[in-house]
Design a protein that fits this description.
The chain is of the alpha/beta class. The chain folds into 2 domains: 15-124 and 219-234, Peroxisomal Thiolase, Chain A, domain 1; 136-215 and 243-389, Peroxisomal Thiolase, Chain A, domain 1, CATH 3.40.47.10. Helix content is 36%, strand content 20%. The protein contains 14 helices and 11 strands. It has helices at 33-48, 70-76, 93-107, 125-131, 135-141, 149-163, 168-182, 196-201, 229-234, 263-274, 291-300, 309-315, 331-335, 342-354; strands at 15-26, 57-61, 83-86, 112-119, 204-206, 209-210, 219-228, 239-249, 283-285, 368-377, 382-392. α2 (70-76) links the parallel β2 (57-61) and β3 (83-86). α11 (291-300) packs across α12.
């Protein structure tokens, strides 16, 4: 007979995240994923004023890196890491990389870990990736005409709207707010204002999903460094402290269609470990490949009760200068989705917000940020979820 054991996790005291970098996105690129990841790594070294010999940990995420993995990158980039991880969890990769890297530094397995994510986007690469995204897509989805996430998220969106009081106008409000935020974000690909009328009148993609509910695939890369607070101070780098993280996979498998994610299982530990409450958070970065996932994260992370996301959306502006700043870069829906880098976009932006690097879209006085990730969609659900709480240096 198995016995359930519970043990309080060790805190992340003394571990920080620093040097947020982005490699400007492009709609299409002739370069391979290695090129994009290499640019991210190079920017990390230049920004921190360190060399390859100072980076003894590497964590990488990419959909288009095949046949290489992180170990292949170590040779390409001239690194000799003593700690290495390859994290193929899509939109949850940014937070999961932080979790792994933080524990590696805390245990002494590495001193400075470079966490990078990036993908290329050739004219036909997205369709090609969908054909082999998973064994499920190869055998049970793509051959029968369901060629990608639009159909899956249409199923989830319709079920969510039928179950809870959420409307297309609510989802549209989120998209419009994110576009407003993106207008002040230098590398966002979407630079034209978006109105609610434009959102509602947009071309139908997969009912009830329309054009502006869908992310645009592109090429790009993101990255950050994880190290001890003492090391960051030695290098004179502004940093954010790691207060808590959670991670869960294949949560609630008995749900007929996904209306919640793994965050709901671990949210009490999430807030208890950080010693803060949802009302203390100054900004939230969610994974936003489709608006329905944003609504799930609002509820499952505890910012509102389950089933009340529609009411919560109507009560807030979600802009950097309004109430409940959310996806302050514009999120993937307005910046673009650079493959696995989409799972890093929120955490990189949160670090910028907490370290004085957010420029024109800065949230005034921001000291605490929450970041959530979601990834690896099969037919009716995403399998991976994660979240982190970060605090500014003086919080």
């Amino acid at each position: 007979m198995s016995q359930k054991h519970t043990r309080r996790r060790t805190s992340y005291d003394g571990i920080v995240v620093t040097v947020p970098v982005s490699v400007a996105y492009e709609r299409y690129s002739p370069e391979p994923a290695h090129w994009w990841l290499g640019r991210a790594l190079s920017k990390l070294g230049e920004s921190a004023d360190i060399g390859a010999g100072d980076i003894d940990g590497l964590c990488a995420s990419s959909f288009t890196l095949f046949p290489d993995t992180a170990v292949g990158l170590s040779q390409h980039f001239g690194l000799t890491p003593r700690w290495l991880d390859h994290i193929p969890t899509g939109g949850a990769s940014g937070v999961i990389a932080l979790r792994r890297a933080a524990r590696a530094v805390q245990s002494g397995d590495a001193n400075v870990v470079a966490c990078i994510a990036g993908d290329t986007n050739h004219v036909d690469s997205f369709r090609s990736m969908l054909t082999s995204f998973s064994r499920f897509s190869q055998d049970a989805s793509y051959p029968y005409g369901s060629g990608g996430p639009n159909g899956s998220f249409a199923l989830m969106t319709r079920d969510y709207m039928n179950t809870y009081d959420v409307t297309r106008e609510d989802f549209g409000k989120l998209c419009v707010a994110q576009r407003k935020n993106a207008l002040n974000f230098p590398t966002a690909l979407m630079k034209s204002p978006l109105s609610l009328e434009q959102y509602l009148d947009a071309r139908r993609i997969s009912d009830p999903i329309t054009l502006y509910d869908c992310v645009m695939p592109c090429a790009g890369a993101e990255g950050y460094l994880v190290m001890s607070e003492d090391r960051a101070r030695e290098l004179r780098l502004p940093f954010a402290r790691v207060l808590s993280t959670i991670e869960r996979h294949n949560a609630f498998p008995d749900d007929a269609v996904q209306i919640r994610g793994g965050w709901a299982l671990d949210k009490d530990e999430f807030w208890d470990m950080a010693g803060v409450a949802p009302c203390d958070i100054d900004l939230l970065q969610t994974y936003d490949d489709y608006p329905v996932v944003i609504a799930m994260q609002f509820e499952d992370l505890g910012f509102c009760e389950k089933g009340t996301a529609g009411e919560f959306i109507r009560a807030n502006t979600f802009t950097t200068d309004g109430s409940f700043p959310h996806n302050t870069s514009g999120g993937q829906l307005s910046v673009g989705q650079a493959g696995a880098a989409g799972g890093y976009l929120g955490i990189v932006e949160a670090i910028r917000q907490l370290t004085g690097g957010a420029a024109d879209n800065a949230v005034a006085g921001a000291k605490l940020a929450a970041v959530a990730g979601f990834g690896m969609i099969n037919f009716d659900r995403g399998l991976c979820s994660a979240a982190a709480i970060l605090a500014g240096e003086d919080a």
